[in-house]
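Quick log. Single chain, no ligands specified.
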Amino acid sequence: MVSSIKLRLFGKHRNRRRQFKPAAFQASSHVIEQPDFNMEIKRIVEAILFAANRPMTARQVQQVFPELEQPELKEIQAAIDAIVDEYRFRPVELKQVASGYRFQVKRELSRWVSRLFEEKPPKYSRALLETLAIIAYRQPVTRGDIEDIRGVSVSSSIIQTLMERDWIRVVAHKEVPGRPGLYGTTKQFLDYFNITALNELPTIQQIQNLDLADESIDNIQQTIQAESEKQETSEQFTETAE
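-> predicted structure:
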């Protein structure tokens, strides 16, 4: 009698174990494998962006993967978003600029990192910064338009320097005699000054009397010069890391 009861109890327990183990295994597999897969994509994406010598979009990152192994674009973007969030409180950040995403030193730390480099960021003349500010805010503009606003002629070397830096380009030609070039800013200009679009520049309301007030031009000059120094530091850090 006792033996039969024990046998029945053991049988129930044994059957219960057989039913439980596969269920537990399946649940465990589902929870562990999916994050590992996404984490691997994130690791690869992070390595690609860290090693890149230019900002990259999610699609450009996707194209680095072999064709048969390319994750979906939404998976790449999810990995990028996770990396941005992960670096939020670190001294280095993954920053989105006009051309894509790039790793850089946070701006508030640039004055410390700049001490590593003997070469100092270039100092730009007032005339160059005024010309760049007018193009950024009034584009597209001709050289004659810039001269009318500044009240003085624009040196060819200033336009050449801005074009060599890839901050401005000829976007069209004005339909007047001589068809002068119309200048506008580039994605590289946005990248350099750490913004994604022109609407992130200070508004005209924030910079009163842009065309006439020396104080306004001084503010723009100081802003551009400060941003230039910060960005030069970030670029030097990136080149050193590579």
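The CA atoms of residues 128 and 159 lie 8 Å apart.
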